[in-house]
Write a structure and sequence with these properties.
heterodimer, A: five-stranded antiparallel beta sheet, 23 helices, B: 412 residues, mainly alpha, 22 helices, 0% strand, TAF1A polymerase (chain B), TPR-like_helical_dom_sf (chain B)
Chain lengths: 942, 412
Amino acid sequence: MEFPAALFPSYFGAGPPREEGGPAPAAGWGEHGQVLEAGTGRRQAETAFVPRRGGTGESWEPADAAAVPFLPPNASCWVPLLAPQDILYRGVLRRKLRAGKSGAALDFTKQLGHFFVDHPEDAFGSLGQLLHKNFYLGNSKLRRQARDSTIRMTALMEEIDRLEARRGCPRQHLASRLRWFSHLCRDWLFEVPLGLLADCVHEELLLQWAGLLFDDSPTAGALAWLPPEDVGACTGRLVYPGGQAMNHLYFQDVVLEELPRARGSPAQFELNGRIRQVAAARVDGEDFVGVRSDYYCGVWRVPGRTGAAPTPLQVIRTGVPASCLTVSPHLPGELAVCTQSGAVYLWSIETGLQRLRHDPQTMFFRDHSPWRWSDFTAHPRVLSCADRTGLQCLDTRAPERCHFDLFKVGEEAGCQQGERVVLPLYLGRAHPSQHLVTTQFSVYVLDERLPLVPVLKWAHMMKAPPLFAHLTPGGPGRSHKVLLGASRTQELMLLQYRGGSRSACQLVGPPQKLHSIAGCLQHLPAQLPHRHRLLQQRLGAPAAGLAAALWEDGPRESLLVFQLSEAGDVFCQRLTHEAVQPPAPTSGDEAPAAPGSSPLFEAPASSPPGLGSEEEEEEEEEEEQTFYLSNLEVIINEEEEEDAGTPAVPEEAELTQEPCASPQPSLAVPSPAAALRYRRWLKALYKVCREPPRQAWPPTLSQKRLFTRKELEAPAGPSTLHWQARQRLRQAMREGGRIQRWDPPGPQPPALLQTLEPAWGPDPLSARLTAAWSGDWWQWWEERSSFNMAQKQRALRERRRRQKRARGRRSLSASFTSSLTYQSELSEVSDAAPPPVSPSRPPVLPGEGSPPGGSPPASPAPDEALLSSQSLRCRGIPKERRKTLRDYLAVWAEGPPEPTEPPGSPASQLCIPSSQSQLSSASQSQLSSASQPRRKRPRMGF
Amino acid sequence: SSHEHKLNFKKSKEVCLTYIQDAMLQKQWKRAAEFLTFYIESLEKDFSTEYMGPSEMIWRIGTEILCHHSHSSMKEFNSFIEQMKTLGVKRYLKVCLEHAFHLLCNGLIDEAYQNLSLAESWRFGEQTAIQDKEMKLIQAYRGLLDYYSWSKQKTILLEHGQDGFEDLSVEQEMHSCFRKAAVNLREIIKIPGVWDLFVKCYVDLLEFYGDHNEARQVLNEYAYNSKFPANPNAHVYLYRFLKRHGESKKSLISALKILHDIVPSHELMIDFNTMLQKSKKRKKRRLGLEVIFAALDYAGWKENVKAWSCLARQVKQIVISEKHLDWIKQEWNSRRDWWPAFHFSRYLAKRNWQDNESLSCEKALVAGILLGKDCKYFKYVSHQGCKARVKRFRILKKFVNKYNPAYLSISG
């Protein structure tokens, strides 16, 4: 624990940050910062100086052209997260606002509208019921006596429809009728008080938007590397989340090689929420792995020897989302937990939770963020606590009394205005008293023994704040490697520093950018456009974690960097370092420059001598071209996503453009092994990520509202033939092909012939369908639900007349009808499980096979009677609709079961078609009560 | 339209900058340099009102590239920087300072000195606060270089002095160096900051000329002024100064006591403990025990044999004398719940035994007394030690067994 004999000079001031400015693109270059006399050994002879930044570091060269998939793609299709265009207002208002530069406008009304449409019951339920009788939605005129208590809403509805069509039109005026209505109803129509609801929606919108701008929930990342126990071994473990909801925790054995590979299948745990963070530390040869999700934190123990199974130890539940979980590197089974309510806990497996602090306010100045962090320090009983304004250290034995400030966003550390702490990290493995603090602008190294004054500071120039950091400590005389990672832009940066005990801390070597996951897109084989887009989306998913492993192979060292994306994919890249190589600062140049083309800056204003004017022009042209090209690219994306460009999230466009826009001398091609991995990964991805059912489907109606499943699922279980046929058809539909040849098993079982008939009878479903398709459904409905005696009688008479006519036409089948219907109805009434005889599952067979025309008994077509083209024709269904109807029924007959529906309940409410909303509630209730007894009527001899 | 043109220009400027950044972050210095030659055009139409203008970016990027480019020479670097100096008035001092740093790191001390002197004489209207600070730094670094030439001449003089030969001109020059250095160094160390290097040099100068009072005052100010950061080195310098001048034990102890209060894990705590252990006063010996316990709380001291032997020695003393067992008890009380896992686990016993036998011996003694002879650490180490027939372990075992009652009273 030595302290450097002399530190680099620096000013020290107190108070709020004075320096203005924001992210400056080149702020990290070109500065030495300060110099210090190097070594006091031979000061008399020649004084040598070392710079605070810019010393020579180790050279770590990327071994491959891009990051390589390490594991097969996460086993589920990734649902892209919320995008700005989902909640931002598009249209006139936005343009206006943009002109006024007031930032993004959240589309509040749209969200509220979604709520009313999606949850009408919650929004208007009881009042809707009450007003049912008083609102008339039909087209016909109201009768006089009804007019006293009922108003006609049709016109209002039309008005609303028109309003929707004119959406976005600058000249829209609210119709007076609508205004009148809203004035009248605003105060009492809504179930939830509108003001309250609006507040909640608005609050949620703001939260979502804040999350889009900067999401701190994955802070520190959900990827951890557990190194092998002894240095020589090369099998470690990778801990990562997976699954569609990222709620499965995997412990995967990994063999370190040039391209590391997974060994065996991972140990897997299913957790109760999305895994936000995985933290690990090794104490006494055992790894302790802490896992944080929003409301649960858990800890696992992983014995050091390879192959030993990880054991879960304890889980805690928090009332407010936890924002931090770190594992003690000093004592086994100790962790630090923070919640968004501002509480900091020391969590010990043996003694439980100890609350150290509970302060909803931030420490040094006011900041709205509820994010808190805590980590361990050189003293096992002292924890560091952080919020966005700085870090404090507190003694867990007396947290109220013993604490000191370690880092303040202020003049002390030379911060800029608006700078905020993003991630603190204890660098104990490099030096026991060092800490790393990243902000959106800079990265700091702190020493506990010299609080408030950073021993290193560097402007990292990353586009998104570094949410992930990883330390690979270097041995004596070597530099420590720090990896910084950003989430949204997937940036990865490698820094090196040394010192801290004998000599002062120095940042050495130039910072280095590593490959991002999205960067491998250009090395993948060419894809079809839609697949390319899928890939782009998948590979461009924000990063969710970062880990690195050091692998020594003789004189050569490799740093294997793993990166996790929010889609659950783990990618890997290797950096190599030749230990014997003398420190040569020039090793970065891949090809020595030609003597003439060295960048001479003698005359920066005039044309550089190295490049001829012609060449320059060419270059310029090329640059312009690429610029416009990239612009074009962005526009395409905008079109696709319908206006994706938003002023507040500028990186979005850049990310998509990055892979193809940059005129890089495209480094190299991936090695054959890497190319193989790409191919395998792609294959697996397409298998996993089947195209979702396209919208190219025939625009089918939602059948749920028209009929209940029960209704469609007519009494009999399907025969094997039906089942077979359906299988084939379904397969054909899935593959988008068609059935080439249909060969039904030879002889038709006689039972099938029998089952043809009952549908002829007045089965309520088929009757209704027939009526609906022939266009007089309404009439049928009236008949069914008539509550007026005269009406009923008239209807009965009418029907009898029709039936007589029909019977006259096909007398033979009619004799079957009554008996069979009787049977089936009996079984239905007695509500026995599957009625044995009745068939009537809508068949799937194409109608072409059935012989056209002929009398019904003479046509023993394999199809089910209801849907044979003939029978349909008999019901007066026009020819062009017959096939549609058949297809329609075939598809929906197999809809997913609706378990919520109790078997005996009259689910008739559901069968009201949405388009028939004119029906009054009276007729609805009538219907539901009438649904059971009405079946009896046909048997009464009519 | 001109607005559109401006916008396009701005955009392509930004794109160019990202290419430069990209190339630099991949250490493709040559490519970055080529792009930079295009970026220089942006100077001509600098519409930006941004915090960092293109001229500063060109300076930063150009410097970085020239530092790493395989074909750059110091001559090129100098001429580039000279041009950069003329590009912005606000940044002049900063560029000069950085230039001097670069020269210093490349061993060109005389050139750096010239540069600093030149920058020092620069005047331009009213200075901002930042420029003021930069000017002070420039002066201080010049003072530092003066100090180095002073010490060089001092060496020459001392060597020649041994020969019995005196050179007046050298001596005169040395004194003038002293004056120049002292003036500048004195200025900067008045301002709150971390000035280890400057303070050391200034005190060295003062000490050479016998101005001990001034030196002491400077060091006291540096250590105890509350406007300065709590820099452990300030206390270390003061302590060393006091020690050099044969100050009393008491003042040495009080200097170290303050260091102990701010950095209990400082390496001087071993010296402090030894000093306190030798003391005749009970209170001081008590403090010594506190100091060594506190130092061993830190992860960085976990395997420090010196510290463990200090603790073992003192604990042994106390146990043998059977006085002040309550001291140990009190120290132990706040550590009883975590030291066993932190220091005395079976895993550590194994590893300490393998890596460092004498460390494990010292620790085993402490463990045996604090935790009794049944503790895992002691058991393992003494067993292994006896198996290996190492004499000191047998003695250790005997000692712990003999003084087991001490453990009982500590744990009780």
